[in-house]
Specification:
alpha+beta; Fusion Protein Consisting Of Minor Coat Protein, Glycine Rich Linker, Tola, And A His Tag, Chain: A, Domain 2; single chain; three-stranded antiparallel sheet
Length: 88
């Protein structure tokens, strides 16, 4: 489970390269539901950011991310829910 979470973090981080610099005090929390093939089937902002531009940058990064298949040990939990805390 923890290695899969690390893969998700690295994949998302590789696409979250906003052109604009954001204040490090900004924070956003989002919950993702991922199917067994690694596709995000649902996303819900659980704590929207204070900056709409930051929120859009995060959502854009998520739309570009391509996650791998769920590990066999997690497939019975599909769609698998994971919470991300994003800080610039």
């Amino acid at each position: 489970r923890s290695s899969f979470h690390e893969e998700l973090r690295q994949e998302f981080s590789s696409h979250f390269r906003p052109h604009q610099r954001f204040d490090p005090s900004l924070e956003l929390k989002i919950e993702l539901s991922i199917d067994r093939f690694g596709k995000v089937v649902e996303q819900k902002l659980t704590q929207p950011g204070k900056s709409v531009k930051f929120q859009l940058a995060v959502l854009n990064g998520l739309s570009q991310a391509r996650f791998g298949d769920l590990p066999k040990s997690l497939r019975s939990e599909a769609p698998y829910s994971v919470r991300l805390r994003v800080i610039p």
